[in-house]
Specification:
Blueprint (H helix, E strand, L loop, with lengths): L1 H27 L3 E2 L10 E5 L11 H15 L5 E5 L10 H10 L7 E4 L5 H10 L5 E7 L3 H10 L3 E7 L7 H25 L1
Parallel strand pairs: 1-6, 2-3, 2-5, 3-4, 5-6
Length: about 200
């Protein structure tokens, strides 16, 4: 009886996680874009940080996000790029490699903003609103991450669209499976976080 109860509880939790994920994906679907054609223009693109290698160069995932932001700028979809990542400690820096890559790709320094305390998706969106006065933006990240990012931003009162960088089929399958599973848990955290801190 005990094992049956535990199994039922686990199944209920998994079903709840799946339902939440499906609902958020559905609710944000009209705001997620894979190509530039129909993507509405916004004043700024918010580019979320990701890992950097030991030598300080951007990981492929981070580089792809930055280059997608560069594309938005070059196509006139945004006027500025907000590079938001983790540079809380001197020995770890996501933001400067993002800025350097954007500048090397032709974005003028005057069009680049930096947020060195974008330690999470929630922090990035909240700080974009509170510290940079951003109310409308295009969020740039991999496609698996966009539903949560858009959900958080909307809960914080931002008018956002999402530009999705390809992920499945680009990065290693095992890595993507891990990212996707963690995203389910992070989404539940986001729902609780935005409910109490919006």
């Amino acid at each position: 009886m005990g094992l049956r109860w535990v199994g039922g509880a686990i199944a209920l939790v998994l079903l709840t996680l799946l339902l939440v994920t499906v609902l958020v994906n559905y609710a944000t679907g009209s705001r997620r874009f894979k190509t530039l054609g129909l993507l509405p223009a916004r004043p700024v693109a918010i580019i979320f940080g990701a890992g950097v290698w030991e030598d300080g160069t951007p990981s492929p995932m981070l580089a792809d996000r930055v280059l997608a932001g560069v594309e938005l700028y070059q196509q006139g979809k945004v006027e500025r790029l907000l590079m938001s990542g983790d540079h809380q400690n001197p020995d770890y820096n996501e933001v400067d490699p993002m800025i350097q890559l954007a500048r090397e790709s032709g974005v003028p320094e005057a069009a680049i903003l930096s947020d060195r305390l974008g330690l999470s998706t929630y922090d990035t969106c909240r700080r974009a609103r509170d510290h940079y006065g951003i109310r409308q933006a295009i969020l740039v990240s991999q496609r698996y991450h966009l539903p949560r990012a858009i959900y958080i931003a909307q809960r914080l009162g931002l008018d956002v669209m999402g530009y999705g960088v390809a992920d499945w089929g680009v990065y290693r399958y095992r890595s993507m499976l891990s990212y996707q599973l963690r995203e389910v848990i992070a989404l539940c955290k986001a729902i609780a976080q935005t409910r109490s801190h919006a």
